[in-house]
Amino acid sequence: MRRLSSIILLLALSLSLTAQKSPHGESFKANCRDCHKTTGWKVDLKEISFDHQATKFPLKGQHQGVTCKACHTSLDFAKVQTECNGCHTDMHQQTVGTDCGRCHTSDSWVVTNIIQIHRQSRFPLIGRHMTAECKDCHTNLIPSVPSSPTASLLRFDPLGTECFDCHRNNYMATTKPNHAQNNYSTNCTVCHNINASAWSGANTTHAFFPLVDGHGSIPCNTCHTSGNYTNISSACVSCHQTKYTQTTKPSHTALGLSTDCASCHTTAPGWAPATFAVHNTYYKLEGAHISRACDDCHKGNYTANSTPTTCLGCHLTKYNATTNPNHAGSQFPTTCADCHTQSVWVPSTFNHIAYFPISSGKHSGFKCSECHTTASNFAVFSCTTSCHPQSKMNSVHQGRSGYSYTSTACLNCHPNGSSGGK
């Protein structure tokens, strides 16, 4: 009887323990032995075998070093937030959303990829904006009332994405040129390069009059002399009239050259080199004349009709000094173009056919010196050389009236170089 009572008592106790709810919640399915021992319920965290990595929230980065109670404030382990803002106070006060993972990682709260994050926003950071301080644009990072306990240093309220939204004060304060007075566009990118490191200088977009070469490095007020940066003429002469008038090599005014500087000059510093395409109006430059320096012909005098346009006007000295063949002694024509081209003097293209057809028959390919034995005088020629020996010529011409063994006589009877004669 006593034994039966003991069994009933044990069964009742067992039912009582079975009916007791787990302090970790009904959804917690882990085996008690994973954490607890029969010697006591107190858990030694160093000895538990529970694998948190197998849960929906693996422990990474700084989460690996925090205590369980830091996140699990009650023993019902299912009642814990998996979102960042469940444990972490939103220091940005809802100005960037609730997904902390967009900017932060569990390794560190420090954000190191600001530029990449901004690329996903309405305002990617390029140019000078890449190195600007966040607070330069996000002024709400600085509390208006520093002593206020509710003030935040980390608010990122939405900002305007137009240049003028941030640079209004720069626009209004600029006087050279005066943006407001001249009614310049508030779209700064019309003139300024957003990729540049400064507002002014070569970084200014001057597309309506490209600032290149010589124009690229001069101060604005060199052209905008009155301080008025509107309605300035884009004609070269509007700035360079003085240079045009003072130039003497050549004298632009004496020659009546065009005031459209671009017709001869580029924007290269120093005005040189000039192309002077209108030179062909006065004298067409071809061949070797193209590469000659202007002074080679003009000798410092560029006024109209001061420079000869005939070959001999420049090349008389060469004509007189040439001895092979002797141009002057042989009374060659002074129209150089009869024999020479403008590209090179040698070889010449002397038209010998007009005098004697050496390009045909047996005379073809002869050297000048074979007939013109006196190099200093090409007016002298000789047929009565080894080519036409006297003994042979006397025999051939025996009985011919007027025969004479002289070169001039040969030419008189054989002007075409043929054996038939006249």
Question: In words, what does this structure look like?
Answer:
The model is unreliable at 5-19 (pLDDT under 50). It contains 14 helices and no strands. It is mainly alpha-helical and 422 residues long.
Question: What features would you highlight for this structure?
Answer:
single chain, about 425 residues, mainly alpha, elongated
Short note summarizing the structure:
The chain has 422 residues and is mostly helical. Helices cover 23% and strands 0% of the residues.
SSE diagram, text form:
Layout (H helix, E strand, L loop, with lengths): L1 H18 L48 H4 L12 H4 L26 H5 L15 H4 L25 H11 L63 H10 L5 H4 L23 H4 L11 H5 L12 H11 L46 H4 L18 H7 L10 H7 L9
Uncertain regions: pLDDT < 50 for 5+ in a row?
5-19
What's the SSE pattern? HHHHHHHHHHHHHH
Please tally the helical runs, counting DSSP H or I stretches of 4 or more residues. Answer: 14
**Biggest β-sheet description:** none
What is the CA-based Rg, rounded?
52 Å
Quantity of strands, as a count? 0
> Percentage of helical residues?
10-25%
Mean pLDDT value: 79
How much beta, percentage-wise?
under 5%
Using the alpha-carbon principal axes, give the shape.
elongated
Structural class: mainly alpha
- Separation of termini? 175 Å
